[in-house]
Amino acid sequence: MTNFFLLFADLYTKHKTTSEFFMKKLILIILALSSSLFASIAEVTAINGKAVILRADEQIPVTMHSKIEKLDTIKTKKDTKLQIVFNDNTIISLGQKSTFKIEEYLFGKKKVKARFNVKGLFKSITGKIGHISPNNFKLKTQNATIGVRGTTIIGESTKDIDKIICSSGQIVVRTPLGETIVNKGQQTIVRFGSRPSIPTVVKNSVIQKKEQSISPVPKKSFVNVDKIERLSKTMEKASTKQKVADVKEQNKNWGNWDKVDAIKKELQKEKEEEPRKQKPSKEKSADKKEPTKPKIDEDLPYLLKLRELAGVKKATYSGEVSGFVDSPANRIKDGKINLNVDLSRGKVDGDIGFLANQKRWEADIKDGKIDKNGALEFGISNNKNLNGSGDGMLRGEHLQHANGTFTINDKSSNQNAYGSFKAGRK
After folding, report:
1. What is the pLDDT of residue 272?
2. Residue 150 is part of which domain span?
3. Do 32 and 50 fall into the same domain?
4. Any residues with CB less than 8 A from the CB of 206 and at least 6 apart, and which?
5. Nearest CA to 415 among 345, 367, 354, 370?
6. Is beta strand 161-168 parallel, antiparallel or unpaired with respect to 152-157?
7. CA–CA distance, 350 with 341 (Å, rounded to integer)
8. What confidence score (pLDDT) does residue 193 get?
9. 94 lies in a domain?
10. What's the rounded Cα separation, in Å, for the pair 185 and 203?
């Protein structure tokens, strides 16, 4: 930009006959362009400790009210906490020895988009971009990508593992091998080269401790905190309404799962009473042989209840597969799935196949299992180039439906297939 101004000054000296009116207009345009190119998109609102802004070839020390620009990278040092507020009221807090990079940020009347990359300790409170267009807000960690639905995220990201907590709202955590939805008060763990773990509940005391290790104490508050909190609560209510709608639609399509909840309570009651029951004496058992029973995994007594619900020991499901390979433009065609669910042993296997990019994908479903809630988890492989995983749920009054999602990687072409399935019992 400096070279441009020098060139402009040289031209002006050589061509003094140029109209002054034209020159004034041109100067105003240049000033407008330069101000838009270097306009700040965020501001440091609190800092305890030391940090730097990496901008082009510069290292700028961070102070209160430091302006943040597009493509900046912020690095915090030891024993440092820092808070940044963006133009759309998105709040990012960083703990010690953390790095935050702004890959893309747009907040205009027509276009909104935020794409950040973070390493270390962080907290994110979604602003207007996450509320207006949640699909355009992405927070990338070392091992996953986080999508939001109006929320607060707390995390720790290292080279080998991410620990991601949703303290309000709802988030979607994705890797090339799969994704999981994390609700308020839950945590997922993502290890390098794997899919996100099944979310687990986190105590409020743990969440508060994490927040204290990240959020700085501002020396002087000039952010409209009440406004931000109201916005966050509004987004959380919207997320809750969406979840209720999803559940209603799910029950409408796949039957009522309340019966399983009742069975779970009954099973827990039986488990508590079991130790009180007296075991039969060895003498009586020696005199009379008990009839042979089917081999059932003794660690999975809930399978008895699931069999009662289904009315069979083994169930076979067949259905359709939909999705895409790498891009939504490359849709999956002619997709089929077969699932064999053994309700005596809690095992799942089968096969899956579909056509995409004029190529047929065929693989076996193996090493699958079913848990006490009727949830399925399984691996996908053809023992050559295809590897992946899937999960789902048995649904309906008599477990007559199965649906879920899957991810498959083709090592030979480095392509990834993402999809879902719906199947009915034969």
Report:
1. 60
2. 42-238
3. no
4. none
5. 354
6. antiparallel
7. 9
8. 83
9. yes
10. 7
Closest to 325 measured CA to CA, from 214, 180, 173, 176: 176
Task: Let me know whether 33 and 92 are in one domain.
Answer: no
Q: Considering its fold, how many domains does the chain have in total?
A: 3
Q: Of 37-51, 213-227, 239-253, 351-365, which one has max mean pLDDT?
A: 351-365
Same domain, 28 and 108: no
- Rounded CA separation 149/169 (Å): 7
Tokens linked to 82 = 């820092």
The token duo for 107 is: 């907040």
Coil vs helix vs strand at 12: helix
Q: Residues in the chain, how many?
A: 426
pLDDT at position 251 is 44
pTM listed for this prediction: 0.49
Q: Where are the alpha helices (DSSP H) in 255-338?
A: 258-273, 282-287, 302-310
Asked whether residue 160 is domain-assigned, the answer is: yes
CA distance 375 to 302: 12
Contact 81, 116 (CB under 8 A): no
Phi-psi group of 5: left, alpha or beta (phi > 0 → left; psi -120 to 50 → alpha; rest → beta):
alpha
Q: What is the band of 23 on the pLDDT scale with cuts at 50, 70, 90?
A: low
In this predicted structure, what is the pLDDT of residue 238?
52
Which phi and psi angles does 131 have, rounded to 5°?
A: -85, -45
Containing H/E element for 24? helix 20-37
Sign of CA dihedral 302, 304, 308, 314: positive
Token pair of 367 as six digits: 């090493």
- Domain assignment present for 364: yes
* Amino acid sitting at position 81: K
Identity of the residue numbered 362: E
353-405 pLDDT, tens digit each: 999 888 899 999 999 998 877 888 899 999 888 988 888 888 888 899 998 88
User: SS3 of 11, please?
Assistant: helix
Closest CA to 270 of 302, 313, 303: 302
Q: Which has the closest alpha carbon to 296: 344, 262, 337, 334? A: 344
Residue with tokens 């399509």: 253
String of DSSP letters for 24-73: HHHHHHHHHHHHHHT---EEEEEEES-EEEEETTEEEE--TT-EE-TT-E
Which pLDDT score is estimated for 192?
86
What is the residue type of 262?
A
